Amino acid sequence: MRSPIPLDLVRLRRSCADCSLRELCLPAGVDRDDMGRLDTMVQRRRSLGRGDSLFRTGDPLHAVYVATNGAFKTVVVNEAGEEHVLGFHLPGELFGLDAIGSGRHRCQAVALGEATVCELPFASLSAVATELPSLQRQLLRVMGQSADRDHDHVDVLSRRQASERVALFLQGLGERYQRIDQPGDDFQLPMSRDEIARYLGLALETVSRGFSRLHEDGVIDVRGRRIRILDAPALQAAASGCEAEVPRGGARRTRA
What we know:
GO terms for molecular function: catalytic activity; DNA binding; DNA-binding transcription factor activity. Homodimer. This protein is α+β, with helices and mostly antiparallel strands. The chain has 2 domains: 9-139, Jelly Rolls (Sandwich); 159-245, Winged helix-like DNA-binding domain superfamily/Winged helix DNA-binding domain (Arc Repressor Mutant, subunit A), CATH 1.10.10.10. 42% of the residues lie in helices and 20% in strands. It has helices at 9-18, 22-25, 32-41, 122-131, 133-158, 162-179, 193-200, 204-216, 232-240, and strands at residues 44-48, 53-55, 63-69, 72-77, 83-89, 94-95, 108-111, 115-121, 186-188, 220-223, 226-229. The chain has a 4-stranded antiparallel beta sheet with strand order 1-8-3-6. Strands 2-7-4-5 form a 4-stranded antiparallel beta sheet. A 3-stranded antiparallel beta sheet has the order 9-11-10. The longest helix has 26 residues, at 133-158. 30% of the residues are buried.
């Protein structure tokens, strides 16, 4: 059992109150006293480097997490040592919920780069939520969003065409960036092409061809990991498998 970590409540309160992601993590209209109670739940803020694990498969449920900086992937590794990516988690998105049912994590969470997380002990969170209906509603909301992302993943994997999977992934990621008050049409991918391939159930080369085709068709502009969505209706059409129904803004680009 881990030893208690000393809390600097003044620092925690100031940090939560000033955090740009506060409205994503906490219910609106929290008064000063309730904010103090919520602050005390943040057992610690952890900094991780690229490739560091936040929790591993089989670890008992101690806490749930919100990244305040950086992003994470959740993965499982099969008996052959192959990694399958189950999901990606952006700043402000609560994760670690996979352990709520069994009490143990069913996957591993790995930092995609330099990251910082707020660790919320689950027992404390549950206890305070019973006394703060607004927090309870907020938890139900973020759990619903987590379930929506799982459903979206199933939807992606059900698409037969690789081009649809790639387009649907980019469209969904843009929508998630909008929800955290960042541009949904101009963003930096926190994950590699290989990690995207493992998430989409495709070969790396197939994902790269999908990005290239969307770029050449003028649907997106790709510069390394930077993605700019130039034609949102065309991206929607590509994600739906009906690209021919949406006219391009110009002639198809030729490969250099």
